[in-house]
Design goal:
The protein has no helices and twelve strands. It is mainly β. The chain has a single domain, classed as Jelly Rolls (Sandwich). It has a six-stranded mixed β-sheet, with no helix packed on it. Strands 6-11-8-9 form a four-stranded antiparallel β-sheet, with no helix packed on it. A two-stranded antiparallel sheet has the order 3-4.
Length: 139
């Protein structure tokens, strides 16, 4: 079931899932972009009531990555298109147009700057950082 047919009262579709995107622009610089994945109500696990589900993104694996407090990775492109989900600590990322963002547990970053100057990654606080890396399958 998708859409609104036979949806029990009180069940609403979730607002779009917001996350950051890092990409290489045609100007040769890397940039941030606020990105959204829309939801639709789906009979995901019948007989449970419908839930909000985004499109499926194919991943080729999963790894937990960790860096100590104070770690810094100087300018580098991402080795592959991937989703990064911050699990613990903080991750600070700077793109080559000068913008800096700090990501905290629960934040998701779609990293697509596989060419160009790339970005800088830092673990700025006094706590080791942990993240889930989900490489996206070819498209």
């Amino acid at each position: 079931m998708t859409g609104s047919e036979n949806i029990p009262d009180g069940i609403e579709v979730a607002r779009p899932f917001r996350h950051a995107r890092i990409y290489s622009g045609t100007d040769g610089e890397t940039h941030f972009e606020d990105h959204e994945l829309p939801f639709e109500l789906v009979d995901f696990a019948p007989p449970a009531p419908p839930i909000s589900v985004t499109e499926s993104l194919a991943v080729s694996g999963m790894a937990v990555i960790s860096s100590p407090a104070g770690w810094e990775g100087d300018w580098h492109p991402t080795p592959r298109r991937q989703l990064i989900v911050v699990l613990a600590g903080e991750l600070e990322t700077e793109v080559s147009d000068g913008e800096v963002r700090v990501f905290r547990p629960g934040d998701v970053i779609l990293v697509e700057d596989t060419s160009g100057k790339g970005h800088i990654s830092r673990v700025p606080r006094g706590q080791r950082g942990y993240a889930l890396a989900l490489p996206l399958s070819g498209e």
